[in-house]
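anyone seen this seq b4? input:
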Amino acid sequence: MDYKEMSPEFVDCPLCDEKIYCGECVENSDTSEGTINEGHLPEKYKEKANWRDICKNCKWHNY
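predicted toks r here
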């Protein structure tokens, strides 16, 4: 696996079922952990009832 595969600019997000910018992924991860207030997270990432668990179990969590 090369660097671009390990650190892509866009990743598949299971919260919204689309590719998102890696910076958004980091913000989502931090929010799911409680580091960032969830009020700052766009609603499209919180539509699924168990969004925190989905995020924490994603392969990109802690990206």
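The first strand starts at residue 10 and ends at 13. The chain has one domain: 3-56. kinda curious what u guys think
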